[in-house]
Amino acid sequence: MEPLASKIRPKNLTEFIGQEHLVGAGKPISTAIEKKHLFSFILWGPPGVGKTTLARIYARALNIDYHELSAVSAGKDDIRQILDSKVSGTLLGPKILFLDEIHRFNKAQQDFLLPYVESGKLVLIGATTENPSFEVIPALLSRCRVFTLTELSDNDMRRIIKSTGSKMKKDAVDWLISMTKGDARQALAMIENTLSLYGEITVENFVNTLQSKFLRYDKKGEEHYNTISAFIKSMRASQPDAALYYMNRMLEAGEDPKFIARRMVIFASEDIGLALPTALVVANAVFRAVETIGMPECGENLAHGVVYLSEAPKDRRAYDAYLKSKEDVLKYGNLPIPLVIRNPTTRLNKELGYGSNYVKYTNKDLLPEKLKNRKYLENKKKI
After folding, report:
1. Which of 162-171, 176-185, 234-243, 277-286 has the lowest mean pLDDT?
2. Hey, where are the domains in the chain?
3. Superfamily assignment of 4-148 in CATH?
4. How does pLDDT run across 33-54, given as a tens digit for each residue?
5. H helix intervals, the chain
6. Which residues is 123 bridged to in the sheet?
């Protein structure tokens, strides 16, 4: 049975809802379609706002051979197969490649794409929820225009929900809009699953569906935050088995491995800190490996790092000291710096006492007068 999202997917810009800054009259994508302008671009925006739909509308309007791949599972061989595929008995002419989650392609895979995009054999349309400035190599990014998509407005969501033809009261519509926060795909999945499970749509049935196994892991939803919290707390408690379980739970649900690796870099300083300074080196190495290798192989690098960080001794003193000192900076502002450690760059500075009686190694308190004898860094404690 065809999914609801597929049934009501717009086939042209007239049917498309939202992103008026891109598809409205005289706007970039509508103008490109009107003038049959063929070029590579990247659609950057949150989930469920129309990235895939726009790519299909564009390709259909220009009547160009169109292919879709997901960077989660695709590789170089898939791209070669597209390049070698025949259209109407010929290999001539450009092909449009829509690459979903382009940020999941590692550097080597993006480098492989580059010459085909440069030559015009492939017209690349990338879709990503991550900032392409950080996730797409500069050479490839420079050959693509970036279009930013925004969360759908409440009014846009109402129009999309109405287009499903599903019967529901205003309170159910309001609840769905509030819960899905501009993500049309999630809203449509909720409608479809609720009808499948309960036969009618009410707020109560929506809530029951939300608690069921049918709702997907949402990178912006509660399950996302619960799982990453469980992952961090498992490493903090030095329980590698639990940490590995939550790591794999996120990966299998489609979480970006770089997100997990970033949290590990933070954890290395926040929770391990001074107890094992090299933990930060390891965590950074893991992040680099994830960035370079990509899924699925980088799961091994993540597992290596997770076990190492879990079993490492813990010391939060540096992190706690950072928070306490930051609190005083925000509370007191720019307190006068003691004259002895000011920089005597001019004659007047020297006459005023800047740097006077400065000693390189001293036990004298160097904090501002108002904060004298303040201790941010606690003495080392045994764990």
Report:
1. 176-185
2. 4-148, 154-210, 222-311, 331-371
3. P-loop containing nucleotide triphosphate hydrolases (3.40.50.300)
4. 999 999 999 999 988 999 999 9
5. 4-7, 20-23, 28-34, 51-62, 76-84, 107-119, 132-135, 138-141, 154-163, 170-180, 184-198, 203-210, 222-236, 240-252, 257-267, 278-293, 298-311, 317-332, 347-351
6. 96
